[in-house]
Design a protein that fits this description.
Blueprint: E1 2-3, E2 7-21, E3 35-48, E4 51-59, E5 62-78, E6 98-116, E7 122-139, E8 157-166, E9 169-177, E10 184-194, E11 200-208, E12 212-222, E13 227-236, E14 241-252, E15 256-265, E16 269-277, E17 281-285
């Protein structure tokens, strides 16, 4: 929903249903039904506006640089769902209640470079130089909810930035700063190198206050035009031990993609199969 060039409103609604089938499971009420179901929904929307300005650069790689600023506010609501009687597989399967408003501010930079086409005529080419986004949430949940027991409705202030200094190099930074402690709670630094044929290597430093300080590395190898393989590992820098390794294949087609991977950690070993329907979503099993 757009109001000319002044503002845009994007509402959304989603429905989610989960079916559980277990061979041996007894819930807190003593029921051993092998079939359990969960259903919920999510509603919300974003209101944004956009401002642009073009600067003269006159550099070897561009003559103009566009600076685009996009401020906005958003709302997200997920109702409380009783999950005490459902099987628990991992934290990703747990649905948290949410009722919050958000603010965000995005800066995006795009370079224009005039080149001479094959017919000898000038042609403008465009390349994204990078972007940086700031955002924060404010919880509207009641005070009796656990999230607000310390009377801290404001989340950390997050910064997510990505820079593309060259076509083969990308740099990514993620920060989280607490307005209550005035300290950084999260710091992630990523560097990715790509080859013209699509191979890539990624290295990353990941820091989470009092919980994590790790080094992550991933290798992606393009085997064919539609088939790629990858291998990744993450190491705990304080304990000097491996946390997790992943090895897998991904097949990409025009409308769908199939992924298979082996996940090994100090807790367990998993085999995951994911099917991605482009434009719809993905599903799979572990």
């Amino acid at each position: 929903m757009n109001w000319g060039n002044k503002a845009a409103f994007h509402p959304f609604i989603s429905l989610r249903g989960t079916a559980y089938h277990t061979d041996q499971f007894i819930d807190i009420d003593g029921n051993d039904d092998p079939l359990n179901f969960r259903k919920t929904y999510e509603i919300g929307g974003d209101l944004t506006t956009r401002m642009n300005r073009v600067f003269s650069a006159n550099t070897p790689f561009s003559d103009k640089i566009q600076h685009q600023v996009t401020p906005g506010i958003g709302y997200r609501f997920v109702p409380h769902v009783d999950q005490d009687t459902l099987p628990f597989f991992d934290e990703l399967d747990d649905i948290e209640e949410s009722n919050k408003i958000s603010w965000f501010l995005t800066h995006r930079f795009t370079a224009r470079n005039p080149v001479t086409g094959k017919d000898g005529k000038p042609v403008n080419t465009y390349r994204e130089l990078g972007w940086v986004k700031f955002f924060q949430d404010y919880s509207l949940l009641d005070e009796h909810d656990e999230i607000n027991t310390e009377n801290r409705p404001w989340s950390d202030i997050y910064m997510d930035a990505r820079v593309y200094p060259f076509s083969f190099l990308s740099l990514n930074t993620e920060l989280a700063w607490s307005p209550y402690t005035s300290h950084f709670d999260t710091l992630n630094l990523d560097t990715t190198l790509t080859s013209p044929r699509g191979d890539a290597v990624t290295t990353a430093y990941r820091y989470q206050l009092n919980t994590r300080k790790t080094w992550y590395t991933r290798f992606d190898i393009k085997l064919t035009s539609s088939l790629a393989a990858f291998y990744s590992f993450e190491k705990d820098l304080e304990r000097d031990v491996s946390i997790e390794t992943r090895t897998g294949l991904r097949l990409n087609k025009a409308c769908w993609a199939l992924g298979m991977e082996l996940q090994e950690s100090d807790l367990d070993t998993r085999i995951a199969i994911m099917i991605h329907l482009k434009g719809i979503g993905e599903f799979g099993s572990q």
